[in-house]
Specification:
With 122 residues, the chain is mainly beta. It has one domain (11-118). Helices cover 15% and strands 43% of the residues. The mean pLDDT is 88.
């Protein structure tokens, strides 16, 4: 399991997940929730990289080719530096979708969507 390439993103968008629960309606018509796990789910991180070098572009493509949308990995501090992103212990990232690439005027831009999951939960 190799970490994501240590490239500082141009933008980051983090969405906090929620505690796994099931909601249901009780006999009196009210609504109740039952917690199904102590894990939280649904955390996501969108990254965009503008004006990448060819080497950095190849590093991101190579990382996705190795991990795909299945194998979890850690993020280096370059990704979250300067941001407060709460990452629970025992959680790792995986690709939510394949990276999106744009080539224009001799520059390379990449967008990456990641999902945060408990270790080995895919």
């Amino acid at each position: 399991m190799a970490d994501f390439p240590a490239i500082t993103p141009s933008t980051r968008t983090f969405a906090i997940g929620k505690i796994a629960n099931t909601q249901f309606i009780v006999l009196g018509g009210g609504q109740k929730s039952v917690r199904r796990s102590s894990s939280s789910v649904g955390h996501s991180l969108s990254l965009s990289f503008d004006r990448l070098t060819t080497t950095d572009f190849k590093n991101i493509v190579g990382h996705f080719q190795v991990h795909g949308e299945f194998q979890q990995f850690a993020l280096p501090s370059a990704i979250t530096q300067g941001a407060t992103i709460p990452i629970p212990s025992g959680y790792l990232w995986k690709y939510a979708n394949p990276p999106q690439f744009e080539f224009a005027d001799g520059t390379i831009a990449v967008s990456v969507e990641l999902a945060l999951l408990p270790l080995n939960l895919t």
